[in-house]
Design goal:
single chain; mainly beta; 8-stranded mixed sheet; 5-stranded antiparallel sheet; globular
Length: 312
């Protein structure tokens, strides 16, 4: 696989490169300083979703998706971050079907090194596989998410493996005071032709503790190794901002040995960290590190990335 994209990750408030093996933080929720590193400079180069495919020390290998909509615009890129190096972005070609419109999330298929599920805002899930040594992704199957509600707009999707069983977690993003997010959970598997299959779907309601106003209550979602559910939330006042975001500890997910998925969301989610000036749309716990990789889609200001110790 060719080596490419995501970027720099700088220790909060220090300007130094993050050490992934650092101990757990005891800091109280607070606005972040400005550890972000820009990886895109315009509205077509934001980060609407990311997954970390591997890491070696401080080096991260990632895939990012973008919410572009017109033919020929980049949908997915591969990325590598090495401390002290200038970030690079390398587009990957899309093959095996029409280009998706408005990709908003991506996660790796647990137990594989080259398969992923990417989700578009209207609820189409693309099962894809890296091909040509990472030069392209090949579509294996396209399937709608189950139980789509009226007006649902999706920005999140996460796969997790527990007790040898897969579970999927995703959410309608919600909109302000009048529309909380609807969080969906279900057992997950693939059929004999690579099609995504969902078991019994359960729904829960989530309201972000921060930010307020025109908030998207769920802009991305992930599950830690211990089963904690982390949710990013963001406010978006237009293509030039201002933007505001936060990450919350929202509850717990478990999977029984029989494969039943149990999601319990907190009535009062714990606010872990605020990120002013950015619209976080990507949240992924870096395996083995306790850190979360975060990506933004700051519209006309492009995309930026950082990490924070949120997954410990």
């Amino acid at each position: 696989m060719r080596k490419t994209v995501l970027t720099a990750i700088v220790a909060l408030g220090t300007g130094a490169a993050v050490a992934f093996g650092a101990g757990p933080s005891t800091a109280q929720p607070k606005p972040a300083t400005d550890p972000w590193v820009q990886i895109g400079s315009d509205i077509k180069s934001g980060v609407s979703g990311l997954t970390v495919t591997s890491r070696s020390g401080g080096t991260l290998h990632t895939l990012v998706v973008r919410d572009n909509k017109k033919p020929g615009e980049n949908r997915i890129a591969e990325a590598t971050y090495r401390p002290g190096r200038t970030p690079e972005v390398s587009p990957i070609s899309w093959r095996g079907g029409p280009e998706p419109v408005d990709l908003e999330a991506i996660d790796a298929v647990p137990g594989t090194s080259d398969e992923f599920v990417a989700v578009a805002s209207r609820g189409l899930a693309y099962h894809v596989k890296l091909a040509d040594a990472g030069e392209a992704v090949e579509v294996l199957d396209v399937a709608p998410l189950p139980a789509i509600g009226d007006g649902d707009d999706f920005e999140s999707f996460s796969l997790t493996s527990r007790n040898g069983k897969l579970a999927a977690l995703w959410a309608d993003r919600g909109a302000g005071k009048e529309r909380p997010a609807t969080v969906y959970s279900a057992p997950f598997s693939f059929g004999s032709y690579g099609e995504s299959e969902f078991g019994k779907v359960r729904k829960s309601v989530f309201r972000a503790p921060y930010p307020s106003g025109d908030v998207r209550h769920v802009s991305d979602i992930d599950v830690t190794k211990s089963g904690r559910v982390l949710i990013s939330s963001a406010s978006d006042s237009g293509d030039d901002g201002p933007f505001d975001s936060a990450v919350s500890d929202a509850g717990k997910l478990s999977v029984t040995r029989a494969g039943a998925v149990r999601l319990s969301l907190a009535k009062s989610p714990e606010l872990l960290e605020k990120f002013k000036g950015h619209k976080i749309e990507a949240l992924h716990c870096v395996p083995g590190s306790g850190r979360a990789a975060l990506g933004t889609d700051d519209e006309n200001a492009g995309g930026s990335v950082t990490t924070s110790r949120l997954c410990a």
